[in-house]
Amino acid sequence: MIWQQKWVIGNWKMNGSLKTNQQLLQALQTSVSAMAEQVFCGVAVPNVYIVSSCQLLNSFALAVGAEDVSRFAEYGAYTGEVNAQMLADVGARFALVGHSERRLYFQEDNSILLTKLHNCLAAKIFPVLCVGETLAQREAGQEKEIVKAQLALLSELSLSEVVVAYEPVWAIGTGKIPTTTQIADMHQLIYQQILSLCGEGVKIRVLYGGSVNTKNAAEILAVPHVDGALVGGASLQADSFAAIIQAACVPAL
Length: 253
Ligand code: PGA
Description:
Elements: E1 6-11, H1 18-32, E2 39-45, H2 50-57, E3 63-66, H3 84-89, E4 94-97, H4 100-105, H5 110-122, E5 126-131, H6 135-139, H7 143-151, E6 161-166, H8 180-198, E7 203-209, H9 217-221, E8 228-231, H10 238-248
Parallel strand pairs: 1-2, 1-8, 2-3, 3-4, 4-5, 5-6, 6-7, 7-8
Helix pairs in contact: 1-2, 1-10, 7-8
């Protein structure tokens, strides 16, 4: 069912407190409960808030996930790390993998990201692989090569389901967004790549991320091959996140 739906996932990044999270999640429960049937909704939260977020949401249909996962699968002497099994243990259903901020500040490359994908799959939390080019790469006309190279690691896994978020780095937190033609071209390329790397039977969701807001969500979500949105800043306020989820509620055909 969720493979036919639009997905809207919030990425809180390094924001929140017990108090503000409670306010946000409670407000969301009220405003999006009717829509949660039609749209797969989730929030990626800082690890320290996974437990309390799961408790607050109780059985409400909003998946809680992590923003990252350790490259180390096993338990042991990895000070500061949180492995995929721990995330699953506390209720995380998914983890973002390879967000551009992780690639930039923590030098995460495909070999690291492959271990992270493996670890998520082994722990039965689904990875959301984030890809996207920088402004310099787009200006040099390299965006397709870059995204293809970022997706190449999918061939190393035997996957029946793939979730990718296309997030042009230059659109994240900047208020700039690609044109709908640019989004459509890239999403089509990502679909083709996934099908050729993982096989025809694979289930796919490709989300767009980067400055999605209440004003542009409906237009972006209507672009062919856009299966949902990964929302940063606008997911921190209940009213704007709820409005984006509302925009993803397309009437059944
Ligand atoms: P933004 O962030 O919506 O604030 O641009 C998106 C993201 O980084 O996932």
